[in-house]
Design brief:
The complex is a heterodimer of chains A (72) and B (650). Chain A is of the alpha+beta class. Chain A has 2 helices and 5 strands; from the N terminus they run βαβββαβ. The relative contact order of chain B is 0.08. Classes of the chains: A alpha+beta (72), B alpha/beta (650).
Chain lengths: 72, 650
């Protein structure tokens, strides 16, 4: 499944980010395979606010669709 | 021994020769890098674009004391924020180029890498890369207070051992930071640069290089302790529940934009008017009186000095309150952390027209005045996006254009004037979208709609000192780079109107406007506008004056028709009759088509010389000239199209 399918309020582990055109930049920001991502809430414009440890980042819908995740 | 002080000094200090040490500040976005720079440099900083680029670098001379009380002459550079050395924007590319430069005179002697304690893992990737270079490096840890509130503590000693370079905790609120950091920088200079860390990976595997770095970062994270009792919802999370929410977020954003717009128009206007009348009244009168006492009263020199130079400086001054307010608002929005949220809520709407979310702010401000709007493009983190937005801002219908729309609308369309003015605003928005589309499909074809993946920093209450320093540095930079263009152009227009045209009877500075070189120039240019239906010297000279400032268009008409300037532009009176007669003549009876073409041209061509000065400051002379070319050609082509189509229809 991809990150956009993860319900708000739950956590998922990133499996692959290779489908994203700037996966290297995502990795630098902490979004890399193995990272636990908390989907915190919806943002204006259809994206999600993600919690990655203590940092918070806003990600658009297209990016969410490109991130493969595993649910525990 | 020289005394040690914190001011700029020409003394060489005890450290020997006068050569200063170049120290570069680097770091991810939102780690407090510029805050640290402001603290170290105070009001002595200079902001300016790095030569040959549109990327802004802060520079300051810093004279701290080392541990022995000796003065250490340092040139500080505040390099653009960079998440890594894998440059993803022209701004990051500049940082990369300077740090990887093989030229010893370009490469900084010491790099101070600023990292955020509350977000350490992400900041350490850049450190991993910097440690692959043989480079003197000091790691400055900020936001320890934010980290502590989140239950995170960083063991600086342990971190130092792992990174292999000095680690200093810094707090922009405490002045002690300055001397600690200076001491560490001084001690790194006594030793040769540390050896690069071993960085071995399998060159066949494309992921191996980054994997090695991430493993190194993970090991360094052993220096970080996190308390388990950490409560997951911070103040920032609570505010973001509103600020980024689907419906409320955009509403809050619009409310903040409304406030920015009000402050840069309604609040700034009386200040601008007051300064304007001060220069036009008492200052000009005093200058005339002074010139009369030294026997220059009534001469061409008096005309040049008072109506040329003083008027030019006056025009520049009227922009100071407006620009100060704009820079103040930008500093507050930037340091509070709200700008990142604004980018989130506007992303989707702006992406629909191919622009990044942050371009919303400069474009909105542009409807008040284009000059601060050009400066507001600084909120965009990518130089290409800044240039693109700067080229689009002149198409936003600023309030100075509004008065001309109202006068022309009332003269030719009577009760329909309101619809005409509304139509001009619709056209203005269409031009921003249309020209943006054309530019992206020609000049910046490679600039796709980048994904929105944006770090949301913790909210901060802006510190007054910090905001004041940022505002002051920007106002100074504006005056330095924009001043010349404005003053020279105003003086040049005065010269044109003071010099009699060849063959006319007037004398220097005493010539009726229709006999001046200015009118002769307008006469020479007028044929260009024949296909647009307004090839008349009155209309052309109004457009020439409008190139300097749109506010002057109506008074130019009044002057060239030797008529009274109407006190209310919606009641044009005698001037209106003269305009109607001339437009009817120049268009061969197709008055409406010609007036629509004229309004279109007025909307689209270069707004004013102050906007050009701001463009020169922000994106450099090349793009400023490109902006003139783009605005002029768009305006002319559209005006001709409007007239020719209008003529066929009517």
């Amino acid at each position: 499944m991809t990150l956009n399918q993860v319900p708000v309020g739950s956590t998922a582990r990133l499996a692959s980010t290779a489908a994203h055109p700037s996966s290297r930049r995502l990795a630098e920001l902490g979004l890399r395979p193995g990272a636990d991502v908390q989907v915190m809430r919806r943002t204006a414009g259809g994206g999600r606010l993600l919690g990655l440890g203590h940092s918070r980042m806003a990600v658009d819908r297209a990016t969410l669709r490109a991130l493969d995740v595993e649910r525990p | 021994m020289s005394s040690c002080h914190q001011t700029v000094s020409t003394s060489t200090g005890i450290c020997g020769d006068a050569a200063t040490v170049t120290v570069a500040l680097v770091g991810n976005a939102n780690v407090g890098k510029s805050t640290l720079f402001n603290q170290l440099s105070g009001a002595r900083q200079q902001l300016g674009n790095w030569p040959g680029t549109t990327v802004e670098v802060g520079r300051a001379e810093w004279r701290p004391c080392d541990v022995h009380g000796h003065e250490l002459p340092i040139t500080m550079l505040d390099l653009p924020g960079a998440a890594s050395l894998n440059a993803a924007s022209p701004d990051e590319q500049l940082t990369r180029d300077l740090l990887l430069s093989t030229d010893d005179t370009t490469r900084p002697e010491v790099v101070v890498a600023v990292v955020d304690a509350s977000n350490l893992a992400r900041c350490l990737y850049l450190i991993a890369q910097l440690r692959e270079l043989q480079q003197r490096l000091v790691v400055a840890v900020t936001m320890l207070d934010v980290a502590a509130r989140r239950g995170i503590s960083v063991d600086a000693g342990l971190l130092e051992r792992h990174l292999g370079v000095p680690v200093v905790a810094v707090d922009p609120r405490h002045r002690g930071t300055t001397s600690t950091l200076a001491g560490v920088i001084a001690s790194t200079l006594t030793d040769p640069p540390p050896a690069a860390r071993p960085h071995d990976f399998d060159p066949i595997d494309p992921f191996a290089e980054d994997d090695e770095r991430f493993t190194w970062v993970q090991a360094a994270m052993g220096a970080v302790r996190t308390r388990d009792t950490y409560s997951s919802l911070t103040w920032t999370d609570r505010i973001d529940r509103v600020a980024t929410a689907p419906v409320v977020g955009p509403l809050l954003f619009l409310a903040i934009m409304w406030l920015v717009f009000q402050i840069t128009t309604v609040v700034a206007a009386p200040l601008q008017d007051a300064l304007g009348s001060l220069v036009a009244g008492p200052v000009s009168d005093a200058s005339r009186a002074a010139l009369t006492t030294i026997g220059l009263g009534g001469t061409a020199i008096e005309g040049f000095l008072v109506d040329g130079l003083v008027a030019g400086v006056g025009m520049l001054l009227t922009f100071v309150p407006l620009m100060t307010l704009m820079f103040l608002l930008l500093a507050v929005l930037e340091t509070s952390g709200y700008l990142a949220r604004a980018a989130v809520v506007t992303d989707r709407a702006m992406r629909a027209i191919g622009l990044p979310g942050r371009a919303f702010l400069p474009l909105i401000v542009g409807f008040g005045c284009n000059v601060p709007a050009i400066s507001a493009t600084r909120v965009l983190p990518d130089a290409r996006q800044r240039v693109l937005t700067s080229l689009l801002v002149p198409f936003t219908a600023c309030s100075a254009r509004l008065t001309v729309f109202v006068l022309v609308g009332a003269t030719f369309f009577g009760s329909q004037a309101g619809n005409v003015v509304f139509g001009m605003y619709v056209l203005s928005i269409a031009l921003v979208i249309g020209v943006g589309f054309v530019l992206r499909s020609t000049l910046w074809r490679s600039m796709g709609a980048d994904a929105l993946v944006i770090d949301l920093p913790a909210y901060h209450l802006p510190m007054p000192r910090q905001v004041a320093l940022m505002t002051w540095a920007r106002v100074q930079a504006f005056l330095r780079t924009a001043g010349g263009i404005i003053v020279v152009t105003v003086a040049a227009v005065w010269m044109l109107s003071a010099i009699p045209a060849p063959g006319s009877s007037g004398s220097l500075a005493d010539v009726p406007v229709e006999d001046s070189l200015f009118a002769a120039t307008a006469e020479a240019i007028a044929p260009v506008f024949v296909p647009a239906g307004f090839g008349d010297w009155h209309a052309t000279s109004a457009l020439m004056v409008g190139f300097v400032a749109k506010e002057a268009v109506i008074s130019s008409w009044a002057q060239t028709y030797a008529s009274q300037e109407p006190p209310d532009p919606s009641a044009p009176g005698e001037l209106g009759q003269q305009l109607r007669a001339d437009f009817a003549e120049s268009s061969g009876g197709h008055t409406t088509a010609a007036v629509c073409a004229f309004l279109t041209f007025l909307l689209a061509y270069t707004p004013c010389v102050a906007t050009l000065a701001a463009l020169n400051r922000e994106v450099g002379r090349g793009w400023m000239l490109s902006s003139i070319a783009i605005s002029m050609s768009t305006a002319w082509l559209l005006a001709v199209a409007v007239f020719q189509v209008g003529r066929l229809v009517s």
